[in-house]
């Protein structure tokens, strides 16, 4: 069972703030802090505390990969022996062109249990990356499902109802 964590109103404001656009200015945290009426130091201290308290896990950029030239991406699904999933997933997740790596349940008509998102400048490059992952792990039973059209790409938004 997941432990429920309480967030103060200030913490909720900070989470809402951090999931928006990051200001492209010399002092972005100062600009963000001003939006909610606190100092830059207070904002940075609360972010550090929330990380320490496991209220937030990470902060990161969302790359719109097509806009920077990554025109090919695929969901590559792998049939990995159950006893090797952790080891293989760690190895695959280390690759710089793998953005996501998930362990999923198998289904009666679907034998694949490890999913990776591979990004490249071409389909050929994606195929080469999958081949590198095969060499690194010894897993070669895979299917590559290429994106035809992107309908939505956003990060989760929390506390938006307020």
Question: Can you put this structure into words, describing what you see?
Answer:
With 162 residues, the chain is of the alpha+beta class. It folds into two domains: 9-53; 65-146, Alpha-Beta Plaits, CATH 3.30.70.3460. The chain is built from five helices and four strands; from the N terminus they run αααβαββαβ. It has helices at residues 9-18, 28-35, 40-52, 85-93, 123-137, and strands spanning 72-78, 98-103, 114-120, 142-146. It is elongated, with a radius of gyration of 20 Å. The model has no long low-confidence stretch (mean pLDDT 89).
What key phrases describe this protein's structure?
single chain; 162 residues; Alpha-Beta Plaits; four-stranded antiparallel sheet; 5 helices; NirdL-like_HTH; HTH-Siroheme_Decarb; lyase activity
Brief overview:
Helix content is 34%, strand content 15%. It has 5 helices and 4 strands; from the N terminus they run αααβαββαβ.
